[in-house]
TrEMBL record:
It catalyses: 2,5-dichlorocyclohexa-2,5-dien-1,4-diol + NAD(+) = 2,5-dichlorohydroquinone + NADH + H(+). PANTHER family: DIHYDROANTICAPSIN 7-DEHYDROGENASE. SUPFAM superfamilies: NAD(P)-binding Rossmann-fold domains. GO terms for molecular function: oxidoreductase activity. The keyword Oxidoreductase applies. Keywords: Oxidoreductase. Belongs to the short-chain dehydrogenases/reductases (SDR) family. This is SDR family oxidoreductase. InterPro entries: NAD(P)-bd_dom_sf, Sc_DH/Rdtase_CS, SDR_DHRS6-like, SDR_fam. It comes from Sphingobium algorifonticola.
Length: 252
């Protein structure tokens, strides 16, 4: 038996990087996964590789009408949602003085407003499940200072804060829904490759315990998400889980 047998999941940004790894891990553990991405063809390719329990969804997370359409489809097919992973993201490399208003607002809409929309409209569907789990992807950037990734850090900080309020709201309302955040450091994804000026150039990640300063693998995050999505983590809500190989505890 899989740890997520019979569960219905929605993963945004599922066509690549962390989202793709999450989809793969969820399906491997028995879930049916909606692979959501603004890149519809990419979502189709991931879903095709995962088999009958993966459903591709072309989905712009910055558009409220897209959320309503996606949730209506899930409700019509399954009548509930067990797992919501708000993972979609973009990055703009610019410090506070260089960042334009348009850049800032775009990053916030894709990575902060989208989480609000996903949770706002998803809570009623998650409340139909016996045990709903919301996992909002934040970043170690919400804990540390990263001037070159100013808008990204601001958006991830907003996700960190709003998720705690969502967790309390669901408890106060008596909904069977937990909400937690995950905070990775550098993980080998297309986003990191672009930010480091090596778009399309993937580097190998060694097995075993990694040294300080190493880049992690998407599976290092996906393994934690399987736990947070499963009923094994029923007593965890409002938490923030750092996946950074010790980066945040080092003095310099």
């Amino acid at each position: 038996m899989g740890r997520l047998d019979g569960k219905i999941a929605l993963v945004t940004g599922g066509a690549s990087g962390l989202g793709k790894a999450d989809c793969e891990a969820f399906v491997a553990e028995g879930a049916t996964v909606f692979v959501s991405d603004i890149n519809g063809e990419g979502a189709q390719a991931v879903a095709a590789g995962l088999g009958d329990r993966a459903i591709a969804v072309a989905h712009d997370v910055a558009r409220e009408e897209d959320w309503l359409r996606v949730y209506a489809d899930i409700d019509a097919r399954f009548g509930r949602l067990d797992i919501l992973v708000n993972n979609a993201g973009i990055v703009v490399v610019a410090d506070p003085e260089e960042t334009t208003l348009d850049q800032y607002e775009r990053v916030m809409r894709v990575m902060s407003t989208s989480v609000f929309l996903g949770c706002k409209h998803g809570i009623p569907l998650l409340a139909k499940a016996s045990a709903g789990s919301i996992i909002n992807m934040s970043s170690i950037a919400s804990h540390l200072g990263y001037a070159p990734f100013f808008a990204y850090s601001a958006a991830k900080g907003a996700v960190r804060s709003m998720s705690k309020s969502i967790a309390v709201h669901c408890q106060d309302k008596g909904y069977p829904i937990r909400c937690n955040t995950v905070h990775p450091s550098s993980i080998e994804t297309p986003m990191i490759q672009s930010a480091e000026g090596r778009a399309g150039q993937e580097k190998a990640i060694a097995d075993g315990v990694l040294p300080a300063g190493a880049t992690g693998s998407p599976r290092d995050v996906a393994s934690l998400l399987v736990f947070l999505a499963s009923d094994e983590s029923r007593f965890l809500t409002g938490g923030e889980y750092i996946v950074d190989n010790g980066l945040s505890i080092r003095a310099g």
